[in-house]
């Protein structure tokens, strides 16, 4: 039994899975901090929360669009979305690389003003900026079929 414990400790199998750090930059997008994000928020930029519904329900930037990266984010590729609108894309924090992937996708779809908010929701919450919970503050998604 003792030999098995030593083997597990030496192999590192007992270590918890560590979160992957988000990249510092996304080509074609501007990386912004929480104060820059608030500046854009005050000027009407579109905030896009790409987290799963469960996390969105716990809290989000008030007025943000909820476009789960795995389920709904692809709707931004539709041609009716204006490519010049400023998009602030965020996730939880610096250990959530999905927001970088979402920013890359938005750039590849032709969006010209993509802001990668690397600090994400946790930084926004820490500064006590406007929050929504559950469906409060949600903005409904307009699809091509609605036009």
From TrEMBL:
PROSITE patterns hit by this protein: RHODANESE_3
SMART domains according to UniProt: RHOD
Signal peptide bounds: 1-19
Cited InterPro entries: Rhodanese-like_dom (IPR001763), Rhodanese-like_dom_sf (IPR036873)
Keyword set, alphabetical order: Signal
CDD domains per record: RHOD
Domain Rhodanese stretches: 41-133
Domain of life: Bacteria
Name of this chain's protein: Rhodanese-like domain-containing protein
Lineage, opening ranks: Bacteria, Pseudomonadati, Pseudomonadota, Gammaproteobacteria, Pseudomonadales
């Amino acid at each position: 039994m003792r030999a098995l414990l030593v083997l597990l400790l030496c192999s590192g199998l007992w270590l918890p899975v560590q979160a992957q750090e988000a990249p510092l930059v996304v080509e074609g997008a501007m990386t912004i901090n929480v104060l820059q994000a608030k500046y854009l928020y005050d000027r009407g930029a579109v905030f896009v929360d790409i987290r799963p519904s469960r996390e969105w329900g716990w809290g989000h930037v008030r007025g943000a669009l909820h476009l789960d990266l795995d389920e709904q984010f692809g709707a931004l590729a539709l041609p009716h979305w204006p490519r010049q609108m400023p998009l602030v894309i965020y996730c939880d924090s610096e250990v959530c690389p999905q927001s970088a992937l979402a920013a890359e996708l938005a750039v590849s779809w032709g969006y010209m003003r993509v802001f990668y908010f690397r600090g994400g929701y946790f930084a926004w919450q820490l500064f006590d900026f406007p929050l929504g919970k559950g469906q409060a503050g949600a903005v409904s998604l307009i699809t091509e079929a609605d036009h």
